[in-house]
Amino acid sequence: MNRSGFRSGLRRLPSRTSVYVTSFATVVALGTVALISPSQAASNKPSFSINLETATVAQLQQALSAKKITSEWLVNAYIERIRALNTHGPGLNAVRVLNDDALEEAKQADRDRSRGRVRGPMHGIPVLVKDNTDIRQLPTTAGAQALANSYPKDDAFLVKRLRAAGAVILGKTNLTEFANFTTAGMPSGYSGLGGQVLNPYDVSQTPSGSSSGSGVAAASSLAAVTIGTETSGSILSPSVANSLVGVKPTVGLVSRTGIIPIAASQDTAGPMARSVYDAAALLTAITGIDPEDPATATSKDVVGTDYTAALSKDALKNVRIGVVGTPTGNQGTAFTKAVDVLRAQGATVAPATVDTGGLPASILNYEFKRDLNAYFARLPARAPMKTLDDVVRFNLAHVGEGSIKFGQTLLETSNNINLDDPATKAAYEADRDNGISGARQRIDSALQSGDFDALVFVGPGSAGIGARAQYPSVAVPIGYDPANGRPFGMTFLGTAYTEAKLLAYAYAYEQASHEWRPPSVINPSLFRCAQPGKQPRDCAP
């Protein structure tokens, strides 16, 4: 049968859940596909169903013999499936949903530009946002099947800031489910609703962190820039793994209103980009004081900062940098080279020591239940989930549908906490306050002991202690492992609201080193058969 007739039949298929960024092949991949003959297509009779994922040769032969399908149709069906699952994309699975209004938003940005109403460096720039962040008319799912149809009342505060800056909201990225607070051992980049995100530099390796979709989308240029969120490492770690610049801001610089939380004491959203300038421009757009997020009041002295203005190739001159850690092997070689670049650009570099262990117990379990329930309370009355307990129960009721493939130990542990118990609350508050003050004291003393302007760590090494201290970090690429092409990075850490300095140091390093390479250069085999235009003859269809 002809392809147009086949596609028209597929469009009539009911969908069990809302599917975005859809195509014929994604429908095929999800399960049963309606196969219809040319005569059925013409007369719109009920379709004949067969599941290509499980069909045996005998079943296909039976369908052929009964003239329910043709070989031509079957070949086309398999080609479409191959394109979707094997070749197209190349199946990175980083984008979960597109914004239906993105094209109209772009047209409006063009109209504004023609009238001289350009609102800054983000005007007309497509941005992908992590799918734990509210965008009007799109569900906010955190990758969970339980939230597949959970629609917010309005945009998150940071999305409103993006729109005010003229940015185009392109859509949402996949993520580790509930920002990697579902169960111990959850693979980074996996969610029950969105599936597994793949690292474009090496698909055998983790895309890392819960902002894996944002990291892969940024690295693969699926949008100009992306937004990630971090509680402890979920911006910095995928930024390093995907050779990006990632900014984990001071808690309070970027509003969390309209973002599915883990813990208010540590949560923040931030930029993920392929260059320091891009990250700085995006950070400039999303900051601001939000009356609904009291933490943002602490950013009053830096409100309105243009983080691109501080960028300078000479920013490292007469700066003192404390180097934490001494990695070995190929990573050590790359890190040593990066430190040499800092020194060559005028920085004084010396070893520094930061004790990152032995802090009070994590406060995430307590805050997750409290803060998630508060997020749910903001949703419209029709929202499918009202409490964390609802999510846990939903998952147990839908295990057979893959709701909790790897379990839900973290959800259950948090759900079992009695938030109203005075002793539990007192212990939590002590751990929270001592954790913040202890982490800050360790960072501050390391900076003061060497009169350092910032500390630099190998990889995302600043993530844990920086998160407890609520301090900012900026990750930047420093090269690739010569043995396998996997990215290396380093991270600058400073005290509260020193983002402008950290970005300037990262920019000076970036401009001197020129280390970044796109994934298609480092891992060409993944992209060789996925480029637009005519494909090499030896590529799969």
Description:
This is Amidase. Residues 74-385 form the Amidase domain. It holds the Pfam family Amidase. By secondary structure, the chain is α/β, with parallel strands linked by helices. The protein has a single domain (57-527), classed as Amidase signature (AS) enzymes. Helices cover 38% and strands 13% of the residues. The chain is built from 20 helices and 15 strands. It has an eleven-stranded mixed sheet with strand order 3-5-4-8-10-9-14-15-13-11-12, with helices on both faces. Strands 1-2 form a two-stranded antiparallel ribbon. Strand 11, helix 12 and strand 12 form a beta-alpha-beta unit. The model is unreliable at 1-46 (pLDDT under 50).
List the helices and strands and how they pair.
Elements: H1 3-11, H2 24-30, E1 33-35, H3 38-43, E2 48-50, H4 57-65, H5 71-87, E3 95-98, H6 102-114, E4 126-130, H7 157-164, E5 168-173, H8 177-180, E6 190-191, E7 195-196, H9 212-219, E8 225-230, H10 236-241, E9 245-248, E10 268-273, H11 276-286, E11 320-324, H12 329-344, E12 348-352, H13 364-377, H14 388-397, H15 409-415, H16 422-449, E13 454-458, H17 463-469, E14 473-480, E15 487-493, H18 499-513, H19 519-522, H20 524-527
Parallel strand pairs: 4-5, 4-8, 11-12, 11-13
Antiparallel strand pairs: 1-2, 3-5, 6-7, 8-10, 9-10, 9-14, 13-15, 14-15
Explain briefly what this protein structure is.
This protein is α/β, with parallel strands linked by helices and 541 residues long. It has 20 helices and 15 strands. This is Amidase.
